[in-house]
Amino acid sequence: MSQPDEGIHSNSNRRTDLDPPDADRWRPPRLSRWYLLLIPVVILPLCSFWWNSNSPTLFGMPFFYWMQLLWVIVTALVVGLVYLKTKEQ
């Protein structure tokens, strides 16, 4: 007589030798304090009303434009730093 069909998920709870010893325990990802550096570089460029003026100028460029460009550069540097510090986690 044949065995009753157990369905396609019958082997889903079976462990193999390749699984690490604590494979059954789920752990939430650890958040690093380095991620806190991302908060100001996301929020502050959105507050453009603080630097909505023409002076001081830099190479003839109004303050508003060169400050926005400066935030692009600072954001790229901070994101790169946070990536390098957290990529091993």
Automatic annotation (TrEMBL):
Q: Which UniProt keywords apply?
A: Membrane, Transmembrane, Transmembrane helix
Designated name of the protein: Uncharacterized protein DUF3311
User: Where does the record place Basic and acidic residues bias?
Assistant: 14-25
- Give the Polar residues compositional bias ranges: 1-13
Enumerate the Pfam families for this protein: DUF3311
Where is the chain membrane-spanning?
34-51, 63-84
Residue ranges of the region described as Disordered: 1-25
- Family matches, as InterPro entries: DUF3311
